[in-house]
Amino acid sequence: MPEQVEQALARLRTQMAEFAQANASLESATEEAVSKDRAVSAKVNAKGELVELKFPTQKYRQMAPAELSSAIKDVIERARNQMSAHVAQTLGRFAPEGVNMADAMNGRIDPTQMMGKLDLPFPMGTDVPGRSERPEAG
Asked: Which domain of life does the protein's organism represent (predicted)?
């Protein structure tokens, strides 16, 4: 039995080190999107925060305000989507089996279902995100 515990702890330590390394790689990660006409580019970090907005050419000067606004919003959204996919891919291997990391990151996961996959009960009386009612205490 002690040997099994040591093996489990060794696996846990390895996974924790791998997770820390993956998390550290995301600290400096950025994703960039460029508009089709190359008038606007946007770069976001792993948190989805805009870290850079560029106008590589003078083309933006001839754009109507609504067109420029739309181009800016589009490149930011595409950069965020690219980063979201990058984060999901990087951290997905640490998710419990059957849990889609992209769905979890976008709030499209039932926490009770996820806890069930881990063979853990969701604490009774706890508000469940996405649910308007509380589970009944048994």
From this structure: Bacteria
Q: How far is CA 24 from the centre of its chain?
A: 14
**Residue 81 · residue 64 · CB < 8 Å:** no
Give me Rg for the CA atoms of the chain: 21
What residue ranges do the domains of the chain occupy?
30-94
Rounded to two decimals, what is the model's pTM?
A: 0.72
Note whether 125 and 112 are within 8 A (CB): no
Q: What share of the chain is helix, strand, coil (3-state, %, to 5)?
A: 50, 10, 40
The 10s digit of each residue's pLDDT in 47-84 is: 999 999 999 999 999 999 999 999 999 999 999 999 99
Cα separation values, 49 from 16, 43, 67, 116, Å: 26, 8, 22, 33
The C-alpha atoms of residue 104 and residue 109 are separated, in whole angstroms, by 5
